[in-house]
Amino acid sequence: MGGAVSAGEDNDDLIDNLKEAQYIRTDKVEQAFRAIDRGDYYLEGYRDNAYKDLAWKHGNIHLSAPCIYSEVMEALNLQQGLSFLNLGSGTGYLSTMVGLIIGPFGVNHGVELHKDVVDYAKDRLEEFIRNSDSFDKFEFCEPSFVVGNCLEISSDSHQYDRIYCGAGVQKDHENYMKVMLKVGGILVMPIEDQLTQITRTGQSSWESKNILAVSFAPLVQQSRNDGSKPDAVVLPPFSVRTLQDIARIYIRRTVRNLVNEEALSKGPVQRVPQKRKRRRCRPPRINTYVFVGNQLIPEPMESEEDERIEKESKEEEQDKDTVEPLKPEEPQVNLLRDKILNLPLPEPLKVYLLYYREK
Ligand SMILES: C[S@@+](CC[C@H](N)C(=O)[O-])C[C@H]1O[C@@H](n2cnc3c(N)ncnc32)[C@H](O)[C@@H]1O
């Protein structure tokens, strides 16, 4: 699945393309996509493919195509403080983006069949928290991943506001998925080759909308060798945050607001100029054929439209020669981090406020 938008050179470029093709339509989804570099979820040596609109599979690691994730994120209609359950949570890429939108008072759980994939997801999450500046720009709901078969979730589990299933659901399991939703909640899943958005409108009523034709690998159905059912999967609790945790969230929020106000008072931020002009991808119109040897070769013929495009491209090229040379980009400063480090506080408290991060 994928290939719906052109390949990007880097994460921002990929997001530009997804926006241009209308897969990303809202600011909050755009911000979450820009904050998490898809390349960080690839193994070394495979990263070059991360900015193409293609799914990626390596052993048990499996990422869906970016255009699918964009549709999913938009269809989930995420808000701060919601509870989210990711069935087949894989690398944690989607769960991490969701965590940036639902914020610190949300709930963010994932169930994944393979232990090695859960370990991989936990490593990626730790790297994000330790190294990414995005972690300081957002308030984050850290995902918790459990190993297990998501078709065997214990029946006394909590219901969730938002659920996504990342593998194909059989019609027989549709109700099993739907009852895990709270009334008013939204479930997004691939079923019968359609990415479908289901809204629970009442205790026993749901509304369903097809979003996109898709082809997903099906959810794995497991039974023990002796034919018995596997153990029920117990999801993490909906735990209440400690007062200490809440204090950290509010102190960081206050410092972040201060830093943002200071930055604003220094005047509007200079927009980084676009790195490159978009290529015009239009197949040549074929109007004539010429003989070369004994072969008939199509020969594109220039039309008024072609001439206009060519003229515009030449003008753009000339403009490029006249604009001032770009200054090298200054390294981005993590203002929140700097501010916290300069607070008149004991060192261990600063380290706590920085989430023990290394960067
Ligand atoms: C396309 S991947 C989803 C990737 C994920 N959205 C991400 O952000 O990386 C589908 C995942 O579903 C998992 N899966 C398949 N059947 C499952 C099951 N019955 N229970 C739990 N996970 C399952 C696969 O192991 C795979 O990691």
UniProtKB/TrEMBL annotation:
Membrane topology annotation: Lipid-anchor
Bias (Basic and acidic residues): 320-331
Region (Disordered), start-end ranges: 301-331
Main location: cytoplasm
Keywords linked to the UniProt accession: Cytoplasm, Lipoprotein, Membrane, Myristate
Domain of life, per lineage: Eukaryota
The protein's role, per its UniProt record: Substrate recognition component of an ECS (Elongin BC-CUL5-SOCS-box protein) E3 ubiquitin ligase complex which mediates the ubiquitination and subsequent proteasomal degradation of target proteins. Specifically binds to the methyltransferase cofactor S-adenosylmethionine (AdoMet) via the N-terminal AdoMet binding motif, but does not display methyltransferase activity. May provide an alternate maintenance pathway for modified proteins by acting as a damage-specific E3 ubiquitin ligase adaptor protein.
Designated name of the protein: Protein-L-isoaspartate O-methyltransferase domain-containing protein 1
Annotated gene: PCMTD1
